[in-house]
């Protein structure tokens, strides 16, 4: 390999790293602005100014406000670990010795992801009432959530762990409601701590899903 080839690869790597850093900065600035001001009151120009880039850069990277919120949502779902939360969730479910341990593991994952994803989901759900792009985004998010919760429910279904009368669809729906609605009710509105919430979620899922 020649010196010029090494230099070109190095320069390309630096450009990719800079682009990823710039994208992350835009997403972080957008999250802060959207959650503070709301979907309709936030403009791409404001986000660009907050991130220190041009509006054209934001539009080129994300296309629209809905596209930017979708990127915020996907970033939130990844959690705060070194690897995506979904991968770690699957590993914990596969390694669990009992179905109760699976539910406890999911409850622990919830207190990592829910504080990040919950506010974004509620932002989209509110905006979807009057914004067609947000409504389409909500449809995509809910469809992906349904697929993911069906995937999670399969750990219990395949192991024969569900209580009699609870179907795979029931389990999917229970997981969807629990992960979307319990956190804001108990943490945001009632002021419960995260550890209290994790224990509540574990007890709820155990009572709803297991014999």
TrEMBL record:
<keyword id="KW-0805">Transcription regulation</keyword>
<keyword id="KW-0804">Transcription</keyword>
<dbReference type="InterPro" id="IPR009057">
    <property type="entry name" value="Homeodomain-like_sf"/>
</dbReference>
<protein>
    <submittedName>
        <fullName>Helix-turn-helix domain-containing protein</fullName>
    </submittedName>
</protein>
<keyword id="KW-0238">DNA-binding</keyword>
<dbReference type="Pfam" id="PF00440">
    <property type="entry name" value="TetR_N"/>
</dbReference>
<dbReference type="InterPro" id="IPR001647">
    <property type="entry name" value="HTH_TetR"/>
</dbReference>
<feature type="domain" description="HTH tetR-type">
    <location>
        <begin position="20"/>
        <end position="80"/>
    </location>
</feature>
<dbReference type="InterPro" id="IPR050109">
    <property type="entry name" value="HTH-type_TetR-like_transc_reg"/>
</dbReference>
<feature type="DNA-binding region" description="H-T-H motif">
    <location>
        <begin position="43"/>
        <end position="62"/>
    </location>
</feature>
């Amino acid at each position: 390999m020649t010196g010029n080839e090494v230099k070109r690869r190095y320069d390309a790597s630096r450009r990719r790293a800079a682009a990823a850093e710039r994208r992350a900065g835009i997403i972080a600035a957008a999250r802060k602005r959207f959650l503070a001001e709301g979907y309709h009151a936030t403009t791409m120009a404001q986000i660009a100014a907050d991130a220190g880039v041009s509006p054209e850069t934001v539009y080129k990277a994300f296309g629209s406000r809905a596209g930017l919120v979708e990127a915020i949502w996907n970033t939130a779902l990844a959690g705060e670990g070194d690897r995506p939360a979904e991968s770690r969730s699957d590993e914990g479910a596969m390694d669990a010795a009992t179905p109760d341990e699976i539910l406890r593991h999911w409850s622990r994952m919830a207190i990592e992801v829910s504080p990040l994803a919950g506010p974004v989901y509620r932002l989209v759900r509110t905006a979807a009432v009057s914004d067609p792009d947000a409504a389409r985004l909500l449809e995509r998010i809910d469809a992906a959530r349904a697929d993911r919760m069906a995937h999670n429910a399969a750990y219990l279904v395949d192991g024969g762990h569900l209580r009699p009368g609870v179907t795979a669809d029931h389990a999917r729906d229970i997981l969807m409601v629990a992960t979307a609605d319990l956190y804001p009710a108990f943490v945001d509105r009632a002021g419960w701590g995260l550890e209290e919430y994790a224990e509540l979620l574990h007890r709820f899922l155990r009572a709803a899903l297991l014999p």
